[in-house]
Each structure stands twice: as structure tokens, then as C-alpha cells.
Amino acid sequence: MCFTRARVKGPLKYSLLGKAVPEAISCKYLGIILRSDLTWADHVKYTVKKAWKALHFIMRISRKGNIKAKRLAYSSLFRPILEYGAACWDPYREGQIRDLDRVQRKAGKFAHHTNSLILGKLESRRKIARLCALYKAYR
User: Fold this and answer.
1) How far are the Cα atoms of 57, 86, 127 from residue 96, in angstroms, in the given order?
2) 28 three-state secondary structure
């Protein structure tokens, strides 16, 4: 895999023990999808899909539970999916932010019975994660 933002890139031919190694466009490393053109579209799409699955699972198993159980399920099963590695892939494109916000709003309605409370929390948590990563890199 070759990382570049160049529009036209020359073909790279890698070989291992005389056999050609195929070039990949994307790969998954430690749960984060890396693309050769350095965009996060695949990872955001994967994260949103995984978050929807987790949310539907939580809704199915705790539909008749109390608010405390719903909040616990949200905090332990849903939120880590959206926050994992967010310091490096935090989206800046409107479409990606809209997709993440939609699943966050749905989870907020279910777990906290509100729209705005949970959105601000997660957005600020991603910002804090970026700042912590920057501090650790600088230190």
C-alpha cells in the first residue's frame, strides 16, 4: 500500500520471493481503515454502519428497560464505537458529519430522551481526544 494524495501515481511493483504483491487501496489496521489517498470516507462509513447495528441491538434488548439501563448500554456498547480512534479520523466533511450526527441523535432519543444533550457531549469528547493526542505527541 502506497500513501499519496497525488492524482496520478506511477505503478509500484513490489515482489516477495519472486511473487508479485498486489497493491491495495485500503487496509484495516487496529480497527481503523486506512486508504491510500489519505481520506477517511471508508472508515466513517464503516463506523456509522457499525454504530447503527449496535444501536439496533441495544434498542432490541433494552426496549422495556428503565432509563438507567438504557444509558448504561449506550455508554458501554454504543459510544465506544463512535469514539475509537477519533483523534485521527474525526470528520470534517459535511456528509460524514451528518451521517454521524444522525446516528447520535437516534441514540440520544433512545437513551437520554433528548436530541441536543448527547450531540454536544460526543463532539466535545472528540475534541478533547484530539487535544490529548496532540499533547502526547508533543510531550
Assistant:
1) 23, 13, 16
2) strand
Distance CA 46, CA 48 (A): 6
- Distance of alpha carbon 52 from alpha carbon 29, whole angstroms: 22
DSSP 74: I
- For residue 15, how far is the Cα from the chain centroid? 33
Helix axis angle, 116-138 to 94-111, nearest 10°? 120
Q: Please state, in angstroms and rounded to a whole number, the distance separating the CA atoms of residues 78 and 103.
A: 10
**Per-residue confidence (pLDDT) for residue 135, from 0 to 100:** 92
Stretch (H or E) spanning 56: helix 41-61
pLDDT at 117: 56
Q: What is the pLDDT of residues 48-104, one digit of tens each?
A: 999 999 999 999 988 888 888 888 998 899 989 998 988 888 888 888 888 988 998
